[in-house]
Amino acid sequence: MPQASSKATDVSIGVCYYPEHWPEAVWAEDARRMREAGISRVRIGEFAWSRLEPSPGEYDFGWLVRALDVLHGEGLEVILGTPTATPPKWLVDAMPGMLPVGRDGRPRGFASRRHYCFSHAGYRRECARIVRALAERVGAHPGIVAWQTDNEYGCHNTVLSWSDEAKLGFRHWLRDRYGAIAALNEAWGNVFWSMEYRDFDEIDLPAGAVTETNPAHRADFHRYSSDQVAAFNRVQTDVIRGLSPGRDILHNFMTFFLDFDHYETMKDLDIATWDSYPLGSLDVFPAPAEHKAAFARTGDPDLQAFHHDLYRGAGRGRFWVMEQQPGPVNWADYNLDALPGLVRLWGLEGFAHGAETMSYFRWRQAPFAQEQFHAGLNLPDGSPDRAYHEVKQLSADLAALGPLGAPAPAKAALVFSYEASWFLRIQPQGRNFSYIEQAFAMYRALRRLGLDVDIVGPEAALAGYALVLVPSMPHVPERLAAELERCGGTVLAGPRTGSRTASHRIPDNLAPGPLAGLLGLRVTRVESYRAYSAVPVRYENATFRFDRWREFVEPAVGTEVLAETEDGHPALTRRGRAHYLAGAPDEALLQRIVARLAGEAGLETLDLPAGLRTRTRGSRRFVFNYGPQPADISPHFTGTSFALGGARLEAGAVAVLRTEG
Ligand code: GAL
Questions:
Q1: What's the CA-to-centroid distance between 567 and ligand 1, angstroms?
Q2: DSSP states along 558-623
Q3: Which residues constitute the domain of residue 618?
């Protein structure tokens, strides 16, 4: 990992900067003030295509080189973005077929951003060309420490494109996958409703039909579209690796974004980064109004942590936050200001979870175009906004803390799968069944126990984890089934796990398919319902609910029933160390179950109030008060001494304890 130039710490603070938005005369002063705030990294360039190539083949790299010189001259390390999220007007006019196409069959045109279809071969060639030109000209610049490919793949709903190029690409992809059309017909079950094809060239994209298209057809279109993101990204990484060696290549992913398999795209990248907008994300996330009200100015206490852990896993241990919210954003339905101190808290929390760099979006608020309401570290007139001072404070905190070291591996793992989210979206069976809500609820239950969590993909090794939670995974790949069998930890599998094959069929042995032996049961019926039909569940002498989904399971001989629905069906079963949850539990039931399993797995747990969270990195235990009330943390935490803060934490405050370990 490239080290931050400050010796006091092994992590760094960054900022997103747009030199092309500001007169050249202010660049040097901007750079100086960045250093003054403790910033050592700057991301630039990711939307600048119209300034890098104003007309076809007429490059202008002069301004970029001067900007790099200024930033490097100030000792700042640059992350250079490739500009492919914003193809210029002349290119779109020359190649209109590159536009993404909506489900309604209409092209999504020029005048904002991300107006391209991942499948379009001509656009990929244009991307290779501009990235090559850029890397040839500046790839060896000593100021550049990393590259960012494109910007937020899939943002604005752009992974699925219903274009002709996508249709042709999909046919190719299906031919590769199935070889013979008979194999595809068999796998998809096309005998149903006479959907059989005679040739791959007869297959259209799964839209525009009279009613629901075959779920297997849609599952494959998701897989195909996801593969196009990885392939599109690879076009750029191949060029950059050749022309700008020794630099990390990364991409900035998003919040709760499931449309493509990030683990696949990460295979060509060195570091996973993500864009953290706590308040905007809480505003658009489905959560009860009281919860949103309590955390409206601080953010959900688990949402940022969830993504830190998700992307640390996707990045094979290496992750950054590329864009951190500095104040109100512009894009949620409502855009609140954060409580003072939160910009610092979100920064420290990222570092606690292992972030190498915490970078803020953006240096100065833009007085023009779409994001005028989006705060920055500085106001449009250049004077410091509140976030500037909080970033300064963060850099003082880092200096006080000293090197943070590597985060220790967690003992609890949550297995996360993008494919699972597609399957559950394709046939939800109940409108309120949501993969991400199930996964996030399990994560929250672990975090309320004060546990550090690794979020791992379906291909991860599970040895060494004392507790493994699988929120819900319709198709359980063989490799994962084998890992769960041999991992040795306590396992909890949620509803619908193992209920479909890779081709979206019910397994021959019924759900949970490949986990039937491990879990010791089979599922014979499921039901979904609205909140008013919730099914009461008895567990540990109390009554809870399955609030949207339940299953009727037949336990095998030797499988214990640990909880039952009020009407006498198994709700939670155990066979050895493997548990199955036969429904979607309410928050309190899930908390009880996870607490009990964590205890049985030998993990030391806490019972944290709603807003208090903790994470350990090296020999420091971070404690965050997301509020909404001040908290006395002494009943929950003991440590040798405070490296930051104290036992009483105001809402939005942070304490860091030195631990023995
Ligand atoms: C991100 C994006 C940035 C900016 C920001 C505003 O999604 O990468 O370019 O638009 O949101 O919050």
A1: 50
A2: T-EEEEEETTS-EEEEEETTEEEE-EEE-HHHHHHHHHHHHHHTT-------TTEEEEEETTEEEE
A3: 612-658
